[in-house]
Design a protein that fits this description.
The chain is mainly α and 214 residues long. It has one domain. Helix content is 73%, strand content 0%. The chain has ten helices and no strands. The longest helix has 35 residues.
Length: 214
Amino acid sequence: MDILNEAITWYSTNMNYWSITALMTVESSFIPFPSEVVIPPAAYVAENPASALAVTGNYPVDVLLIVLFGTIGAVLGAIINYALSVWLGRPLIYKFASSKVGHAFLLSVEKIEKAETYFNEHGRVSTFIGRLIPGIRQLISIPAGLSRMHFGQFVLYTAMGAFLWNVVLALLGYLANGQKDMIEKYSHELSVAIMVIFGGAIVIYAFVRRRKRQ
């Protein structure tokens, strides 16, 4: 927690597009770091440049670019997980997850199995949907790498899911006035709502398409 608090303190005085990209790369890899402390504060500062957070004058000024650079970072972090999974393979990935070092990164065999089960049940689109699910978001790229999912599709689905999640976080940062407790409280509810809306849209699309064929 001390490292996390130090990172948050550093970020508050070094808030720019590059630090957003770097921290979102970390967040999307196997290193535990909450995206809720990256995108929402930046979005709030961008919309309120005179806020107390903008103490250095070195803050992002465009919410869309915040989302864009955050998405780039998320994709880079996911690629790290994907590449490590392809390179190491399933036995070493699970061995690392069960080791003391893996536990230090808050990994466990159960978490890897959960992500792999989700990937197997939902297929390649899970790399998109999984980006909206807490506990799955950072790890869904591991089973994608283990199954050697087509890299282009992996990057595309990951970018789409990460972009949507970052939009949610940016909106939360604006609505919650940058308050961390409110962001944490409503981030899960909003992600679930988006998944329900997205799932409903898919069902309606499939139904309409089937009716047209008939």
